[in-house]
Amino acid sequence: DAEITQSPRHKITETGRQVTLACHQTWNHNNMFWYRQDLGHGLRLIHYSYGVQDTNKGEVSDGYSVSRSNTEDLPLTLESAASSQTSVYFCASSESPGSTEAFFGQGTRLTVV
Amino acid sequence: AQTVTQSQPEMSVQEAETVTLSCTYDTSENNYYLFWYKQPPSRQMILVIRQEAYKQQNATENRFSVNFQKAAKSFSLKISDSQLGDTAMYFCAFMDNNAGNMLTFGGGTRLMVKP
């Protein structure tokens, strides 16, 4: 069955370190998204991509970057981790601009100490 | 930019009873979708129900139904015959059909179903 997987599920890192969270989907979806979940804020969009070599900034993109070298993967990089980036991160994918169904990964809980 | 507001941070309901979760949104668009997602303790995001803005009929999915009031920009979720497995965070979300597939979420409502 097709799926979307995130790794790791949990990570603890130190302030100032570079961290990369992986997202891999086997749906062959063009659209991929990264959100962060914080209490009281729901999920907020960090970055998104509509296809290979396409990346766009979302609402809370400062301190994060993404790259899309193939259809299946959209890794999220924290260039220099800060305590404010302690959060739960979700990756999602959807088929096309007309699709309304988004499929979510299981989330990555990141703690920056 | 769109905003989605859920004014009830926490709610509780007795098993088998009915509960309504509130959601309001703000947009100047006409072509959009609204969603309710459920997030149980496993953290998985599960789509509960979807409403297309151009459809006047309220969406229903088994025990879940919505009350969509387009003019009032209100989109509430009614859960009938509540079950213990309904205990979860519930998120209301908005998608502008003309601006890609990104979702704008409300802050969430934590629902506890009591036995």
Beta-strand percentage range of chain A? over 45%
Please give the oligomerization state of what you see.
heterodimer
Helix content of chain B: under 10%
Distance between the termini of chain B: 41 Å
| Main beta-sheet strand count, sense and barrel state of chain B | 6 strands, mixed
Mean pLDDT across all amino acids of chain B: 94
What attributes characterize this protein structure?
heterodimer; A: mainly beta; seven-stranded mixed β-sheet; four-stranded antiparallel β-sheet; 11 strands; globular; B: 115 residues; mainly beta; 12 strands
Describe this structure in words.
The complex is a heterodimer of chains A (113) and B (115). Chain A has 113 residues and is mostly beta strands. Chain A is built from no helices and eleven strands. In chain A, 0% of the residues lie in helices and 51% in strands. Chain B contains no helices and twelve strands. Chain B has strands at 3-5, 10-14, 19-21, 24-26, 32-39, 46-52, 60-61, 64-69, 74-79, 88-96, 104-105, 109-114. In chain B, the strands form three sheets. In chain B, strands 2, 5, 6, 10, 11 and 12 form a six-stranded mixed beta sheet that branches. In chain B, strands 3-9-8-7 form a four-stranded antiparallel beta sheet, with no helix packed on it. The interface between A and B is medium-sized, with 24 and 24 residues.
